[in-house]
Predict the structure.
Amino acid sequence: MRAKIVFRVHLIFRPRNEALQFLPEQGKRVNSEEEAWKELERLEALPTLGVQNGNLEFKGKREFFRVSDATSVYDDDYEVEEIWFPPLQPNDRDRDRTVAVLTGLIETDVQLDFNFEGFPYDSHELRVELFLPKKHKDKMYELDCDPYMRVESERIKEGILEVKPDVKKRLFEWNVISEELSENENTTSEQSALTMRMRISRFPQYYVTNFILRPGVFAALACVSTFIPPVEIGNRLSLLLTVVLTLTSINYTSSDSLPALPYSTALSMYHDACHYLVYVVIAHNISFFLYASRCSKLCATEPTSNTDAGTVDPSMAACVASADAPCDAAAEVADVAATVASRWCSMCGYNIVVDYWILLDLDDFVMFFIFAYWIYWNRKWFAAHK
């Protein structure tokens, strides 16, 4: 994956004699639109920055000027020291106190190895490898990393790599975790290099609200189907089909937030879990519907006379009849107890109370267990990803 990174770089250096003659007085600047800059480029008097892992392009004007307040502030004891430079030759002491800045806005297109497996709780590292080519061994600059550098006149107050507050506000979705600028130890003799690293993490609230909490609630609504009688399988499946279509729509909408990936993300696995929950509820409803159908077929062959039925508690018979039992109760109230008993008692070899519990109470109990496990699984999932 490629990304564009825009940043301003300040190269603080002691200019060579070829550049020293063009260095303006304190408070003045030479920019890249002036004739003097063309001469500086012809003489190769200024350091030339490059990017190893991408393409570099300067945006706007570059500037070359003098500074006098470049210091190093060590965090342990807040001791202020001058920036270190290599010692000069004895005949070159006039450059000892001369410090210049070359600054410009850089846009680079770099290859980034983003890993979205944790999306939307993902974090990434932005890495830009800067280097200075050593074209001439007697005319070259060396990159040196000083993490405690401060230049008050250029608003460099927090070290050599700093993300300004106004820039952080414009990142919107991202939070800057850390910034680091380190010197490369494996550079070749033809160049000196530094690596700029920045770790960022995503603010997940938008995705959690729209693509996690909402589908999680919709999936949980599948358990509401237990309030529909088991024999009305059409109504139950109609509700569950609506939930599946809603989850599929949310899944397609969330996929637009990411590039095409060959692996699953945390969000896609959560959506899969939502679908699996609905499939389990569908299997549960079909199982209890088949049991109810079996009851209906068996009870159709049972005798309905009081003589064959035996005795049964009339209140239990009325309860079964009022709870949409698979068999229609007798039209006469007097025959309800005997009719229900005859159609249920010998159906599976159990008492009428057992069959009533299997068909009605167990249906609700299993659905409640499924719903409770879904709540438990969500708590574990959020704890693991936060």
